[in-house]
Amino acid sequence: MRKLPIFNAAFTLDRAAFDHPDRVSLTYGQQSWTVAQAATATRRLAQLLAQVGVSAGDRVMLVSHNSPYHLFFHIACARLGAVLVPVSFRLTQFELQALVDFCSPRTVICEPEVAARGSFTSTGTLMHFVIDDDVQAGPLTPGLAVGYLGLTAALIAFDGEFIADGADDGPLELNQHDYPEGLADIFFVAGTVGQPRGTELTHENLWWGSRNFRDALGYNNDDVALVAAPLSHVSGFNCVTLDLFASGGHVVITRDFDPAAILQMIEAHRVTVFFGMSTMYLALSGHPDFATRDLSSWRLPLVGGTHVPPPLLGRLASRHLRPLPVWGLPETAAAIAYLPFEHCAEYPGAVGRPFPHVAMRIVDPRTGEDLPEGQVGVVDVQGPAVAARYWHNDADSRATFPNGWFRTGDLGQMSDGVVTITGRYSEVIFSGGESVLPAEVEDVLIQYPGITEAVVCGVPDAIWGESVAAAITVDSGSPRPEVSDLLAFADQVLAGYKLPRRVIVVDTIPAGEEGVVDRAAVRAMLLDVPPLQSLEQAGSTAGIAAADIAVTASPEPFAATPGEEVSLNDDLTLRDSPAHESGTTSMERQ
Q1: For the chain, does the N or the C end have fewer beta carbons within 10 angstroms?
Q2: Is 536 domain-assigned?
């Protein structure tokens, strides 16, 4: 007899299709799927994947804007025991290839704009699929040449009937009563080159992550969730999205974040649940339509991050909305803590109490010993939603998951069981929900001609929470680099949100007695440097081709003594900000 509960979402969807076959399950643009149609679509996609050789344990990488394919392919992979790897479409070709090299997917599924950049290479057998909304539906043939720079791919047109009927119409060669458990998804959270952190989430982790939200917030299958946070991030994907889709609720997906369109959809679909970062809510509440649209159905405005800014609370309350801060990370399947609206004023800046199936403690970062209430230490989390490891990254796995606990890297304190985050023990930069490893940016900057050292850190940013800043030293025989050329150089291989918004040239990098970089001193210098204003004016890269830039991880730079700082011009702004993926992205750490 099978052990219960069954955590695989394919089982949940099949059960919902039996119980409520004609209920609307998913809406995207002008198209909707019933629960039965969605279940059939996932079975056909599973068969298509099986036909091209995908089997249990294989990785399937999806590079796409928000779309129903994130949910369809998750369930399709779940039926086979395969593993979905959802990845941001905003990554460059270099970064995507680095992830392909790292996780060796059996299949890469992407949109035409990604495919147009060129195909991916792999040491194993790699099948490409292209999702194209504009192509006439027709039979799916694995290996069909679709003409995107010679990319060989099977083509999937975005049409509900085509999804359902595109695979071989023969008998489904899947055991419909076999729902594999084990690894379900890999979410890459910080760094895409060198040694990335890909959080391994099992079906059980995802199930308990959703269970935390369901039990704490009291939503049910009569709710309607609108999804604008990136589905390549766990908070957009899991949170309430996967649970409602699989259980028979109604999920409305929008490809991009557009405040006017979001407000219109809330009114038209009678949306009850919406998750977004504070920056998304500021954009929504600042739009003229916010005052006139019918928002009376919206009972759960979930705000991701470490706290809700007080001015935003007032804006939302003016429309009788009761914002509910939630905090989670990929390693916890999006669920750590939540703060009911009634307590926001009582505990300003707090992330709240742990979700029902989460244990939390504050520990001394040096000894690992528990600290009493009121003292600041590192936040540790434990529970059935917590991951056990990172994909093929033993060193970080051992350091981050000691003795069954997840060490968040955040500094915090607890009072009356309510946690407030006070800082970060980790040096990872979190900008508008995207994660940036300083070493990743340093590795690229150091390759610019004449630069001898580069130190990157995060500095506070009123819009994005943190932004990337860099201090560099230049060889005495080389001219000082132009900021525009330096940023254009880095822009060839790094996503826009990873580019420095502040740059300073110093004679030497501050360092401690042992020669280790004093990042606190570097950060203090960078705080006095005004943000750059426009990357659109970035100039040439002095003949340096992207292919000549090695994308590898390297040790932190060292320096001997502090030196004089020199600020560069401030006439540049960062383009391609993290909000461009779907407004702002998910939680501050996703």
Answers
A1: N
A2: yes
